[in-house]
Amino acid sequence: MSFNSWRSFFTFSWAVNRKQRYILDEESQRFLNAIIETCQERELSIPKGATVWRAQNGHAWRPMYQTDPETDEQVHVDDVPIPFPHSRMKPLEDSASEGRANSKGIPCLYVATNKETAMSEIRPWLGAIVSLGVFKTTKDLKILDFSVEHGVSNTNFLFYFNEPSEEEKKKAVWSDIDNAFSKPVRNSDSTSDYAATQIISEFVKSRGYDGIAYKSSLADGHNIVLFDLASAEVLGCQIHEVSKVQFEFKRIEEH
To answer: Where is the RES domain positioned along the sequence (predicted)?
Structure first.
């Protein structure tokens, strides 16, 4: 089974955003099945004990005391920042927020392949203090990689008047999927903007995968979404202060 068209992802995305989301039509179901049929080269294995990272905006405080020489009492003099406790570094099981790969209330563990990517993904401001947790995986994991065609534009394919070859069609669709997962999340995004990637993730989960990986658009590493919160455990926590934030801009030509 292959994709119906090189535009299959956009057809699927439109259908689940504007037509029907919970009971998928036949074409949407075919699209999901085609993902599984064409993904064999994208399967990755993460061994038990591998190191991954997860960051959270904010930190906890630890009070500092000094002994009053006259009364010999402990006097509170200051509070110093410390990392969040280990329990805070995982999402709450009963109140998960909306994400690129999960619906509200259904938690997933979002981690990254390096600490720079983990901290960049939470978009902290200059001078902010963030808590950074180092995790290790608790079992061997089978991951589906959505980063292979990241950054590849399908602009050239718009000039096709007929469907391209099966190989070109597959590459075009996977490019759209990969870029949809790595697209930066904005505060203005509505929850429906996540529908397509959430459904794909849930379908992948139902086919026995432990998680997905996709390229970060904010740093050099990759993001990994683990479907089971117990797939990784916290080894330790650190705090980091954001010392530099750099933006780049490109002009959009007016027509």
So the answer is: 83-241
Q: Per DSSP, what are the bridge partners of residue 66?
A: 75
pTM: 0.89
Q: Return the H-helix or E-strand segment holding 188.
A: none
DSSP states along 78-108: EEEEEPPPGGGGS--TT-PPP-SS--TTS--
For the record, the structure tokens of 63 come out as 């009070």
By CB atoms closer than 10 A (0-12, 13-18, 19+), residue 248 is exposed
- Helix and strand element counts for the chain (H, E): 5, 10
pLDDT in tens, 52-86: 999 999 999 999 999 988 888 999 999 999 999 99
Domain boundaries along the sequence of the chain:
8-241
Q: With contact defined as beta carbons under 8 Å apart, do 231 and 109 qualify?
A: yes
Q: Which residues have CB under 8 Å from 58's CB, separation 6+?
A: 84, 129, 130, 131
How far apart CA 35 and CA 3 sit, in angstroms, is 8
119/81 Cα distance (integer angstroms): 17
Q: Which among 185, 146, 109, 107 is positioned nearest to 9, based on CA atoms?
A: 146
CB-based contact 37:8 (threshold 8 Å): no
Query: pLDDT tens digits, residue range 99-132?
Result: 899 998 999 999 999 999 999 999 999 999 999 9
Residues 147, 211 contacting (CB under 8 angstroms): no
Q: Do 99 and 226 touch, CB atoms closer than 8 A?
A: no
